[in-house]
């Protein structure tokens, strides 16, 4: 069976697989892959050119935001000490008379960079983040302290982070809160457009505008975490949707997952980044290279080629437009099928998220026998749907068939393939966690399985198989 056929996997490895129907529309990446397979040394010799080409594509796709730093995981990219060092380095670089020269350190460099950034001693010595409440939280490190998951809070390290309430706060209240946080070492605020921990609530344009003003007033970095929301929320980055046009531009954007590489994007027009005075395109490219070369190779070549391929495919298939269409099809189909379940309920009690990043109430998601992705834990009654941006998903009838009995032939065939390989469906059809139940047998008709919890086990036993 063709692996590009539509199927009921809305998990896609936590959203890291964004599309497969454009695999033959990434000429640059494909040519580099072939060459790398034959002669890796020659491709490595061209590394600088490949990185420059990737940067060109990234800047064009993400409207002027430059990829400055690459990391193994989004959480690593958000380390406050890493980002504080990066800004010190940029401030020192900006004053160099010859930007191509290797930095020659003078005794004035550090104090003058700190002054340029307007940072106090706590911000340099003990940099921390404020994070919008109920929004992003890490699985480890200082930001794990804000996680809804107790097992993550248990391994919190470092200075922690400030939880910032954004809902129902005036700009003055936000600004005052941030002024206090700044004295304790806060260097900026991390916010998500789609709050990922609970119900997928969307941060409103008014909230983003207030937050961006409060950050600017206090000289704090505004960081938008777009690890999950890039491309699939109806804009290159979700904060670039037209309704957010009134906010000040963020200084940094964290990317990862679907882009095939994690890292930090910088917007030199951000309120803090502007203080660096790096204003021409040429100077900006020199600046990001300066940071990249300070940590040996910025990103490994095969990862870079893969990431380049994702941008080529996203452009060729217009995945941004598709994300709006696919999200709409999914919502409409769910609404029409779930019928009376919605009676008396507000839209926000059924769906969260934006575009093709959907949060669906667990009892509603469950009736469609698809594989979604869990979030902070079993007490969160929402499942995330992270469908692929494949071409066939833009057809309403295809989406309807996946969510209904017409998917049965595909499901049976998928189940047969899995059985041959001694595999099982990977994700619990009810809660979206790993489907590792060893007691129950999985359903080879619907191609679904469950995790170990009592609730999900009962749902597998009780489910009615799809019938043609
Ligand atoms: Zn489960
Ligand atoms: Zn079944």
From TrEMBL:
Q: Does the keyword Membrane apply?
A: no
This chain's protein is named: Pyridoxal phosphate-dependent transferase
Q: What GO terms are given for molecular function? A: pyridoxal phosphate binding; transaminase activity
Give the record's family classification: Belongs to the class-III pyridoxal-phosphate-dependent aminotransferase family.
Query: Which UniProt keywords are present, listed alphabetically?
Result: Pyridoxal phosphate, Transferase
Keyword Transferase carried by entry = yes
For this protein, the record's Gene3D superfamilies field holds: Type I PLP-dependent aspartate aminotransferase-like (Major domain) (3.40.640.10)
